[in-house]
Amino acid sequence: MHTKHDWITTPITPGLLRGALDLERTEHGLLSHRLPARARAQCTDGQLAMAEAQPSGVRLVFRTRATAVELDTLPTKRVYVGAPPRPDGVYDLIVDGTWPAGAA
Length: 104
Description:
two-stranded antiparallel ribbon
């Protein structure tokens, strides 16, 4: 059975995000940072830049009456020659403070 959805697209704005110290607008959307721009400008070390741009703990927080939610992301990860591929990132869905039934 095919069900037609009338999707509403809502851009992610800084007001919807929690847990990021700084947000950078890019051509693909928002990029979260663990350090503010002034601190990032003081140190151009590539390893620091890689670590501080990993969005661990960043949360998208909103209220909706929707019965379906879709999140479009652009995941990135480093590839190291001779090392096995890194695992994909994880997105957790919490509804009203609990994991929805059937969510893994």
